[in-house]
Structures are given as C-alpha cells and as structure tokens.
Amino acid sequence: MQAFVPVGLLSLKAACNVENANWRVHVHELNTLINAGAIPNDEDFYDNVAQTVVQGGGDLVGLMTDADSLHHTIAIAKRIKVRAPQLIVGLGGPAVTPTARLLLERYQAIDFVVRNEGEETFPEYIAALEEGRTPAGIQGLTWRDGTTIQHNADRKVIEDLDRLPIPDFDAYAQTAHSALYLDVGRGCPFKCAFCATAPFWERRYRMKSTPRILSEMRLLRDRWGRRHFNYSHDIFTCDQKWTHKFCDAMKAAEL
Predict the structure, then answer these.
(1) Is it the case that residue 202 has pLDDT exceeding 80?
(2) For residue 1, what pLDDT band results from cuts at 50, 70 and 90?
(3) CA-wise closest residue to 84 among 57, 107, 65, 105
(4) Beta strand pairing status for 206-207 and 185-186?
C-alpha cells in the first residue's frame, strides 16, 4: 500500500499547535505502519489497529475517513471504545460531513464529528474539553451531549487559505520518503451530481497564493531534499490565467 505524508492531518496538528503549544498531538498514517509490520494486516486487522491506538495513550482519538473507508473506520472506532471506553472518539472528512447526525445516532462509539474544514473547529473543540466548557457554540461540530445529539451551526469555509499554518511536517517521520500531496487549494465551482467535492466546499474555489505554495515547496526541498511534489486539488488548472502565472513563478524560483 502506498505510504503518504498525511498533509491534512499535519495541517490540523499545526492548527492545534497554534491554539496551544502544550498539547501533545500525534499523527499516524496506517499504511506506513502496516507496510512495516507494526500493524498485522490479517483477520484481526481492526483489533490490531485499535490496540495500536489505545496503547499510545492520550485522551482523544480523531479518525479521518472517506466514503470508501468509512465502514473500516467505524469498525476501528468500535474496537477502540471497547478497549478504552474513556477515550473520546471522533471522525472527520468528506464522508462524515453530510451524515454526522446519523452516525452518532447509529454508533455509540462515535462521540463527535468535525464537519467540513477542521483547522478551526477541531482546536476549538479540544480547548472546550480541556477547560470543561460546553462545545455548544462551536460551529461545524456535531457532538454527543449525554443521550442527546447536538448538531451545531455550520462553519463558513476559510476565505484566505494563506491564514492556515504550514503543516507540521516535522511531526511525521516519513516526510522524506513517502508520497507527498501538497494542499494547494480547495473547492470546485461546478455542480456535478455524482461528486461530493462541490457541496463539501460550498462550491467555493480557493487557492493558496503563489508565494505561499512556493514557500512550502522550498521548505520541503531544503529540509527534506524533496524533488517531487503532487498538488492536492481536484481542479488545479481551473483558472488558466492563474495556472500560467504560477508556472512562470515556479520556473523563476528555480523550483
């Protein structure tokens, strides 16, 4: 299985670092652990993953999931709860955003769902837990309040992606070796009925600025010797004028 740098999770970790530098947030990418034999990929796979998560300690576990992995993620969440009922277990990602309330109604193992973009919602939720406050006012959050499920108001998309902190690449030991997909932009303005991308991003097409993208590339080249980058965006070339300007700037920067 392809090992990859989990840039989305590293972006969440960086956002948590900004909120509170004393929080201990660890990022794990399962494919690397499976390939290394640290998690046996056998008939007890879900139990193996849950055991690895639980033995790492901590108070909260967040699991990113997509449509094709949702059933696996729920199976893992159930087994985590069996082993450590005190752990707060939550989900994030495109598959759980439209189904958040239903998931909490159906699966007791899930305590919360971060809907849509998580860089603002997730740190706010952790801060509320740490301070003993109710998360009732946190936008973009669906959460379990005793026997009641609370579905907070939606959070608007982040207008300026340059406001996001640079992903915490230092937190992932395989940054120099695993496949790398840089988060350069988000969203799609089109209305294809078969695709969840447009509604997930509120049909907003946003790109990081050219200087910001180049700075991340330069960081990864100079610190980890990376010579190859994939751009994580559904339609990177949607704005052709912007694309040409970006390519010219990248060539001028000798990247």
Answers:
(1) no
(2) confident
(3) 57
(4) antiparallel
Residue 235 has pLDDT above 90, yes or no: no
Looking at residue 192, its pLDDT comes to: 85
Average pLDDT over residues 133-142: 97
Which of 15, 147, 129 is CA-nearest to residue 138? 129
Q: Is residue 199 very low, low, confident or very high in pLDDT (cuts 50, 70, 90)?
A: confident
